[in-house]
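Lab notebook, design round three. We kept the backbone fixed and only want residue identities now. Task for the bench partner: fill in a sequence for the structure below.
Input structure tokens:
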């Protein structure tokens, strides 16, 4: 079990200490947290079919505060509760907005002690709000400071066995994504926006992205280019064969709503 959980957040389950469980409705109402939050949604588009491939649920404050303002309040004490509440809120609101695509949910691997147990609230939320569990994509960001790669790999393997898709966000921002790719192949990677920015002017970055694309094609991993802001960036990446995109060029995040999509 992950040893980062404080003792007052643990309970005895089946003869062993585990993080305190909350029901779907309790998570929905922010049990275990001293702050409130909601979600904005940003589309990920399929440029071949000109459809929305997925909607990513992004944390926001109830008064439209930024993700940073909310995430800065997450601590070792409330990380598990926050991770569970994020899943429930993302699914509940997606159902209310009638999302019929995939739904990307960012998860905190350091909040998960045992994938099979921690996923129960997610399944309960899907059932409660009538959202198909096989439409969930769980993504991890390189910024999560993962030190135990074996733990992340076990989570990914468990999620895949349950029928979820898995993704590495911000791929290329550091070494963790490369290590995860070497040890375990996710279904999707999302190229870090620093690789994308002004790529039409950067030959070295173009070579790096082409190499990533070649590896992912060989491994049958889908690639999403995120943070696309200009038509020039899009055209270069389209020439590389990238099919899926996310960024202001196509649609900005909408607070508790879905964004009208623009197809270049």
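Proposed sequence:
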């Amino acid at each position: 079990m992950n040893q980062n959980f404080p003792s007052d957040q643990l309970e005895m389950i089946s003869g062993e200490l585990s993080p305190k469980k909350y029901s779907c409705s309790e998570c929905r109402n922010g049990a275990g947290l001293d702050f409130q939050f909601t979600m904005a949604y940003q589309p990920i588009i399929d440029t071949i079919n000109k459809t929305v491939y997925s909607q990513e649920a992004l944390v926001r404050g109830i008064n439209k505060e930024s993700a940073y303002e909310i995430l800065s309040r997450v601590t070792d004490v409330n990380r598990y509760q926050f991770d569970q509440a994020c899943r429930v809120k993302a699914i509940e609101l997606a159902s209310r907005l009638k999302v019929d695509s995939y739904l990307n949910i960012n998860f905190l691997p350091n909040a998960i002690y045992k994938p099979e147990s921690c996923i129960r609230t997610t399944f309960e939320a899907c059932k409660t709000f009538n959202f198909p569990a096989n439409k969930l994509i769980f993504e991890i960001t390189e910024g999560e400071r993962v030190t135990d790669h074996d733990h992340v790999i076990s989570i990914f393997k468990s999620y895949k066995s349950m029928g979820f898709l898995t993704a590495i966000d911000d791929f290329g921002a550091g070494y963790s994504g490369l290590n995860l790719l070497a040890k375990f192949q996710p279904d999707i990677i999302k190229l870090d926006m620093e690789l994308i920015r002004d790529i039409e002017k950067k030959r070295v970055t173009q070579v790096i992205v082409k190499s990533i694309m070649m590896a992912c094609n060989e491994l049958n991993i889908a690639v999403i280019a995120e943070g696309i802001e200009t038509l020039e960036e899009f055209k270069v990446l389209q020439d590389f064969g990238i099919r899926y995109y996310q960024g202001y060029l196509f649609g900005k995040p909408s607070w508790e709503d879905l964004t009208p999509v623009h197809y270049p």
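Keep this in mind before ordering anything: The two ends are 48 Å apart (CA to CA).
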